[in-house]
């Protein structure tokens, strides 16, 4: 194509996609049928992982639960069976350990089949200021929140691309889109997780594997215990989210092939403002919203060692 034709194509398709996005605000897209899919959820032993498993339970999927907490997974398995799941499998797996991920992934393929919906949800937070955080905790944060995604994709993506069918879900955070005081390692891990997920999504499109869908989830902090003690300065504008609501919206995003999900909706505006406001104005807005003090009451914080 020449310059004029490609430019015309850009204008026409941009108009079409913008109209499509506008219509989607008022007319929800039809939800896809996931009956028979094999859904793997990391960090399924508690919190948002357990809630997502519960919401998948009545949809006719085979559930594969991963966690480092054996008892937590047993409880999740019991709960999802009560909600209608008939095919539930759970495996002890430390997602930060590449060798264990590959070993357990091979076991899943043998015993259950090829995973077609992969939800990278496992995550940890240290809650320490950067200079107070031991190197081991920083490394663990990056291993769980970021590197684990590399290993699970390596393990399960080949089957998806071979079939040109599947769905990759990255449960990241709004802390992966804007820095938060006291969360340097956590923010870095989530920024990296988002960048990784976006890049793989583009690789899939570039290679014509448009049947493998991707969803990147960026919720504000949730009331799951992970950020116990933290409160929002202005809860009506930027609330600490109810995990059941977040799980519901994630499932809806998967069923409608939504590429990005930011929660609450006010985050779409705030993230847009970050990109256009001067740096000092952005800092002023962050102070107003309480981003500088959000971690002050974090109950999981360990005081600086002498």
From TrEMBL:
Molecular function, one GO term: oxidoreductase activity, acting on the CH-OH group of donors, NAD or NADP as acceptor
The keyword NAD is annotated on this UniProt entry: yes
Pfam families registered for this protein in UniProt: adh_short
Keywords: NAD, Oxidoreductase
GO CC annotations on file: lipid droplet
Coiled-coil ranges (or none): none
InterPro entries, per the entry: NAD(P)-bd_dom_sf, Sc_DH/Rdtase_CS, SDR_fam
SUPFAM superfamilies assigned to the protein according to its UniProt record, in alphabetical order: NAD(P)-binding Rossmann-fold domains
Family: Belongs to the short-chain dehydrogenases/reductases (SDR) family.
PANTHER family for this protein: EPIDERMAL RETINAL DEHYDROGENASE 2-RELATED, PKSB
Protein name per Swiss-Prot or TrEMBL: Short chain dehydrogenase/reductase family 16C, member 5a
Organism: Salmo trutta
Chain's gene name: SDR16C5
